[in-house]
Each structure stands twice: as C-alpha cells, then as structure tokens.
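Look over this record as teaching material.
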Amino acid sequence: MAGFSPPGNGKKSGRKRGGGPRKVADFRYKPSSGQREKAKTQDALGCSNGSASEGTVPGIDSDCRFGNGRERAHPRQAYAALDLGTNNCRLLIARPSGGDFTVIDAFSRVVKLGEDLAKTGRLSDKAMDRTLGALTICADKLRRRNVYLARSVATEACRRAANGPEFIERVRAETGIALDIISAQEEARLAVLGCHILLEQGEGPAVIFDIGGGSTELVLLDAGGPVPKILDWQSVPWGVVSLTDTVGRGPVNSDAERTQRYAKMRQLVRDSFAPFAERVVEASKHRDIRLLGTSGTVTTLASLYLELPHYDRKAVDGLIVPAESMREISARLSGMSRGERSNLPCIGQDRAELVVAGCAILESILDIWPASRLGVADRGIREGILRSLMAAELQRPEASAVK
C-alpha cells in the first residue's frame, strides 16, 4: 500500500420507510422436534472433540418455515438470513442456484445496538429504537419477497445485555421477526460455514476468525477434506465496539497517548486469547498454516491495501494479503487522529473510531497464528445460515418430490 491519500468522502445514504403499525407475519425460528437436545459433536462442519464440542449447537435441519408449514420449498422460493450484531443489522435474501445461491435482496445498516453496553450492562433506549427501525425495513423485505424459510439471529449485544430478552420480545411484537440469541459457539460455526470455501489451498492447519462488534471468535480447523473439521475454538468479549468502549473513546492529545491506548487494547485481547494461544502453539509451528478473516476490519484494511477509492466487494472478497502489510496498515491507522482516519477511503465517520480496536484485535490474532498471508472474506454468518437452511431443505425426504 503506497499511501493513504483520501479521495472524496463516500457517505452511505439510507431511505426511511414510513407507515404505522400493521399486522405482520411471525417470522419465527422454530426448532424442529428432536433438535432441542444437546447437539452431536459431529455437526455439518465435522466438529470434533475439544472446546468446539461443548454446549448446544442447533442442527442445520431445524425447521424455520413461515406460514402453516404445509407447503414445500421450490427452487424459486426465497430463503433469508438476518444477523443482528453489536454494531450492524444485516439481511440477505437468496434463492438456490445449483449448489450455491443467488442473492435477490440485501440490507445493511449500522445500528450501534451495543452502544454504551460495556458501561451500563443494558441496551439503551436510543440504540433499541435505531435497531427497531432497521428491523422494520427487514420485515418489509421479508414480506415483499415472500420468503419461505428464514433464520434471524442476535449475537453478543443481546447475549450480554440484561434487557436482551426483553428487547427480543419487543422486536417480535413490533416487527414479527423472532430473533434467536445464539451462543458464541454457534456464531463461530455459522461464520466458518459461510466463508471456509475461501481458505487457501494447502495441507496445514487453518484458523478462521470473525471480529465482530461485541466479540471475536477464533476457530482452529483441519481443512484437509471437502468439509473442514473444527478442532478447537474460543470466543472473547472483545469486538470493535466493546473494546473501544472499555479502553476509552474520545480524542487523545499526543502520539504517546495513542500508543498507550493501542497497547492497552492489544494487552486486553492478548490476555483473553491466552488459553487458545497455548492450545494451538504446536499447530502454529506447521510450515503451511493458513489464516482467513471475516469482518469489517479485515475488509476495510484490505480496501486500504488495494488503495480502492470506494469499497468494492468483488475486489476484496477472496483477496489474499501479506500479513505484514496488514500489520503496517494497522500501525499507521493506530497512530492517526480520528479526523485523519475519517478522511480515508472506505473508512469514513462510522468506522473512524472503531477501526483502531479492530486493528488491535487483528494484530493479536497474527501474534497467535503467525501466517505469512491473510485471506479476506466479505461473507460469514448470513451465508452460513443460508447454506444451512438450503442444505436442510434438500435433505428433507419430500424435497425430491417438489416441482
């Protein structure tokens, strides 16, 4: 990356949708009978023994059908995946296409649901109102696209907040969307399922990570076969929002203060990931280790590496970047003021403050898993959900009879 010369300021624009309360379908995630018991250790990703086998992981054949459940899926019917994170609300609607799927609608908005959560332990009224506004748009898209199967999940902010369950019920009452607060383990599994296809070819072990707003997941894989096997995993409550809120927001007055704040971020993440680092130390010595990241942090840094004037998913998704280049970009960003970062292409006002925490988390991961190259994925939980839903429907006994 030659330099950080900012072109024009590319701001996202959003359209508000009007209309008062109205009757809506109940977009509910309904686990089928038999799926409420503890998950088997061998799931769709070949989850093996070790940390990844603990806890309950919903199976991929869960029944997420809308309506009365009597109709069968058709190849032209739409499937949907909604991911409500600590910072973003994202929706994908797609139709099956051969062995993959074609996206027919999408939505993404920064909602800052976890704003001040680290300090108060609760979701604020303003954050919940912002998020409900975004979810109302999502519900409208689900109706208009006549979605047949869907799964809507909420992650760390709703897991951690004392009023998380209360908010989930409010969402269901006001929008018809029934959010499933998933475990960190299920979050990691879905992220891997959604992006593992982008792992570089090789014979050595691999790590996939997901830097979110409220947590970060690291997953160690045996990726030698057609479907990767999870060997170990860990989640820590440090994402770009939670880490920024904990270490401190606001301006700093000197380079020394910036350096000190960044070092504190790195130390917090390093300490939290220490157990995982100890468990994977031998695997990390393999000469052919691979690393793949899915998050706004890695896609933003990849955009800076490519010197893109505006974000381009086609250029970033599947990109392989030298790890040392990502470290260099992280170091430069952490040494800038918020104003300087906000003027950079592909960052802007929303990411200007949070990206530094993302850089601290990324560098800590590179310390644990010192791969020479980093794969970049602009896909993850939503794609993992869609693949799960479509695979489950294909496995249903009556699916072959659908015309």
About this structure: The chain has 15 helices and 13 strands. The domain at 198-380 is CATH 3.30.420.150 (Nucleotidyltransferase; domain 5).
